[in-house]
Amino acid sequence: MASTGKELGRFLRSLREGISPETVGLSGGGRRRTPGLRREELAHLSGISSTWYSWIEQGRPVSVSAGVLDRLASTLRMTLAQRQYLFDLAGKHSSGPPDLRETEEIPLPIPEFVLNQTGPSYLLNTSWDAILWNKPAEELFWGWLSPGAKSRNLLEYMFLEPAARSLVIDWEDRARRLIADFRADCATKFEEPPFSRILDSLHSGSPEFRKFWQTREVSWREGGRKLFRHPTLGLLEYRQVTFLPVIRRDLKLTVLVHEGTTPL
Fold first, then answer.
1. Could you give the angle at which helices 66-75 and 39-46 cross, rounded to 10 degrees?
2. Cα–Cα distance measured from residue 175 to residue 157, given in angstroms and rounded to the nearest whole number
3. I need a labelling partner for 77 at 20 to 30 A (CA). Which of 113, 205, 230, 242 fits?
């Protein structure tokens, strides 16, 4: 819990430093030792004591109510994903999207739906290990979903598998977004296995991961246009759609809808 409190403080600080005074109706004049809002300014705008807010940002063991979290989220102009992450770190219930972490046996018809897709489709568990995929996904993601791959974890594939860097166009931007999505998904789980093992592996094996992780960007998987440069299939364009199955809220179903191919 102590480490979660420290992460909550670091997260708030990173957002506070990214908000310009003018954005919230304050004057930006005068000397400022740090960028963004001062602690006392954020506290005042959120209707809380500046001393108490400082304790929160310092990671001290204080209890923060849902109302205070709502006000901080509003003042800091948080996105829905950032707001959910804030509530997860504070251990409070959010009125936003429901908790997506349940554990049960995988029921039908999810496997049939994945396997019957004509485009690459795969199913991720809470730690982003692929647990089911179809043949087109296996053919596209060589080194991840192909036979004999070292790891079925999407993050380990993206950062530790050389094939991912040549396959994924705009690798750096996609890799940053992937970390932001993962952080939003697993806000309070980082010290639990298998999350801790995955993070240790990525920190030790990828300098890019270490750099991107420190930015504390948070988002949800938005899908959209994805481009790949496949060694045999050529330049591929897909529209990515990610589903959260109601019957298995701990899983993510990703479907890639084919939109074009350019031969090599």
1. 120
2. 10
3. 242
Give the domains, in start order, of the chain with CATH numbers.
2-90 (1.10.260.40), 110-262 (3.30.450.180)
Terminal C-alpha separation, the chain: 52
CB–CB of 199/182 below 8 Å?
Answer: no
Residue 60 backbone phi and psi in degrees, to 5: -70, 155
Residue bearing tokens 């972490």: 101
C-alpha 144/C-alpha 220 separation (Å) is 22
Percent of the chain with pLDDT over 70: 87
Q: What is the separation of C-alpha 164 from the centre of its chain, rounded to a whole number of angstroms?
A: 19
| Tens-digit pLDDT profile for residues 22-63 | 887 776 666 667 778 999 999 999 999 999 999 999 999 888
Question: How many CA atoms does the CB half-sphere of 141 hold within 13 Å?
Answer: 25
**Measured distance CA(120)–CA(140) in Å, rounded:** 7
CA distances from 11 to 46, 67, 89 (A): 16, 18, 9
Tokens for 143, please give them: 């080194």
The four Cα atoms 41, 44, 45, 51 give a dihedral, to 10 degrees, of 80
